[in-house]
């Protein structure tokens, strides 16, 4: 059991199997991208088990069936650029979702995260938001992204990543204890350069072949 109250580890044999290949340094970029896509879809299936449903009558070939449907609008918000790699898998499962984007960089002088791009729907405050980034390392970018979303009126926010470091989880927990964090695995630590250990390298570079 995790020591962090807001951390949820999505543990499933298929996710574990695919994560092993994602970590492998010899996995080529196209395969890496496909695996990220697949794991994102598997994880979002798990984390959306509390979304509201509404009753509806459906006419089958034989009779009327009492069914339930999801009619609550979802908003996916990837943090540029690596977060983009997880969006398509989620959209295949929830194709009615809208997609916003947040671009963040770290100021070299202040070392603080700076939002350089932010685009979400005008009615985002009424949606269930899934903030997406493959890695939760220091937690600076994710914290800044949540700050920006909340400033825009969003209140129902979940954060989804593949790999998290304890330092990042702690920082996000301290800044936003109300935000649930969903990850496939909690790794050991950050190294002196701020990379998750053992991690999977730079997710953005591996996704887009810019290594």
Task: Please supply descriptive tags for the structure shown above.
single chain; 211 residues; alpha/beta; eight-stranded mixed β-sheet; three-stranded parallel β-sheet; 15 strands; globular
How would you summarize this macromolecular structure in one to three sentences?
The chain is built from six helices and 15 strands.
- Alpha carbon gap, first and last residue: 36 Å
H/E topology pattern:
EHHEEEHEEEEEHEEHEEEEH
Number of strands: 15
Low-confidence stretches: none
Q: Hey, roughly how much beta strand do the residues contain? A: 25-35%
Question: Mind explaining what this structure looks like?
Answer:
The protein is built from six helices and 15 strands. It is an alpha/beta fold. Strands 1, 4, 5, 6, 7, 8, 10 and 12 form an eight-stranded mixed beta sheet that branches. α3 (87-93) links the parallel β4 (74-80) and β5. The protein is globular, with a radius of gyration of 18 Å.
Topology, pairings included?
Layout: E1 7-9, H1 13-23, H2 29-47, E2 54-59, E3 64-69, E4 74-80, H3 87-93, E5 98-99, E6 101-106, E7 113-119, E8 128-132, E9 135-136, H4 140-151, E10 157-160, E11 163-164, H5 166-175, E12 181-183, E13 185-186, E14 189-190, E15 196-197, H6 203-208
Parallel strand pairs: 1-12, 4-5, 4-6, 4-8, 8-10, 9-11, 10-12, 11-13
Antiparallel strand pairs: 2-3, 6-7, 14-15
Helix pairs in contact: 1-2, 2-3
